[in-house]
Design goal:
The protein is α+β, with helices and mostly antiparallel strands. The chain contains four helices and nine strands. The strands form two sheets. Strands 2-1-4-7-6 form a five-stranded mixed beta sheet, with helices on one face. Helix 2 packs antiparallel against helix 3.
Length: 211
């Protein structure tokens, strides 16, 4: 019995997806990545060009497999969102350094692992975010929104893996902390309120700007 149990454990480990990357065998993963990079280019063409160079060709007839594409995009993701089968949202930090250029806009990818096939819009919020049309004051210093341009509608596709674009802007310099939360509707925060992360942003003036 012990040998049988050991054999089953070994087989399970062999068949399991690679650690660190969710498994996605969907044939349209490349098209979803392409749409996200097109949306990123609408806000930050330079960042989009760097991301495209990292992933390489996205045609159907070539290019790296799905997990390699995910690894290549990790360093451009500010946040990673996991939606569990009960539609609860959990948020972790991504591989992109939380660095903002004053004046912005600053665009980052958001990786979404969608186990519930949710098709609601992905929303972002923060206690440190300035309300629409309001000036920064007190503890509010950050403007933030999910980008939904021509290439990327606001609703999630329901696919196992997809990417969204979050846009941040500030007129403050120095190190600034913000709690950033994401959800797909009221009541979708993960148990224990793990749908937010604390990020410390390094906010710098553009190169060549007077100090």
């Amino acid at each position: 019995m012990k040998r049988l149990a050991l054999s089953l454990l070994t087989l399970a480990a062999t068949c399991a997806p690679s650690a660190g990357q969710p498994d996605d065998q969907s044939p349209d993963l490349r098209s979803r990545i392409d749409a996200a990079l097109a949306a990123l280019a609408e806000v930050d063409p330079d960042q989009a060009e760097r991301a495209r160079a990292a992933v390489g060709p996205l045609g159907d007839d070539g290019g790296p497999p799905g997990r390699e594409l995910q690894r290549a995009l990790d360093r451009f993701c500010l946040l990673q969102v996991a939606i569990n089968p009960e539609s609860r949202v959990k948020v972790d930090t991504g591989g992109a350094p939380p660095r903002l250029t004053v004046g912005g806009p600053n665009a980052f990818l958001v990786k979404v692992e969608n186990q519930a096939a949710v098709t609601a819009p992905l929303r972002v919020s923060s206690p440190q975010a300035v309300g629409a049309g309001a000036p920064a004051s007190g503890g509010t210093w950050l403007r933030m929104r999910m980008h939904d341009g021509h290439s990327l509608p606001p609703e999630l596709t329901g696919a196992p893996i997809e990417y969204r674009v979050v846009v941040l802007q500030t007129d403050q310099t120095g190190d600034r902390a913000a709690v950033v939360a994401m959800d797909v509707g009221q009541g979708t925060a993960d148990i224990g309120f793990r749908n937010d992360v604390l990020l410390t942003f390094r906010c710098e003036k553009p190169q060549g700007a007077s100090q």
